[in-house]
Specification:
alpha+beta; four-stranded antiparallel sheet; 3 helices; elongated
């Protein structure tokens, strides 16, 4: 079981429902929740986080908050949490280095007057 928390730049309820529909289409999704106040999408289950984030980045600005296992054990020691936090940060940095946020370029051609004579 994996847990992925991403911050997605959504503007309205229509985009929110579309993003949840896109993510729910992946196989192995156990649960899906959206915090509209912080614009954070939480996905848990047996899935590939890279594919989910790539699919979201095709349509919206997406930022990874955390990736890890979905263990619900609160009785752990704090020492393990520091190591896990360090590992998560390293994984996130490695992912962002390997899959950079795509840049969009626009090229505009200047408007020219078409020739008045076809033969010329």
């Amino acid at each position: 079981m994996k847990k992925l928390v991403v911050k997605v730049d959504l503007h309205d309820d229509r985009e929110r429902s579309k993003a949840m529909r896109v993510v729910s289409g992946f196989g192995g999704i156990g649960s899906l929740s959206m915090d509209t106040k912080d614009s954070k999408l939480t996905v848990s289950g047996d899935f590939d986080p890279v594919k989910v984030v790539n699919k979201l980045r095709k349509s919206w600005r997406t930022e990874i908050v955390s990736v890890g296992s979905a263990k619900e054990d609160d009785g752990k020691k704090d020492d393990g949490k520091k190591d896990e936090g360090k590992k998560r940060e390293d994984l996130i940095k490695a992912y962002e280095a390997y899959y950079p946020t795509p840049l969009t370029y626009s090229h505009y051609m200047p408007l020219e007057e078409p020739p008045s004579c076809v033969i010329c």
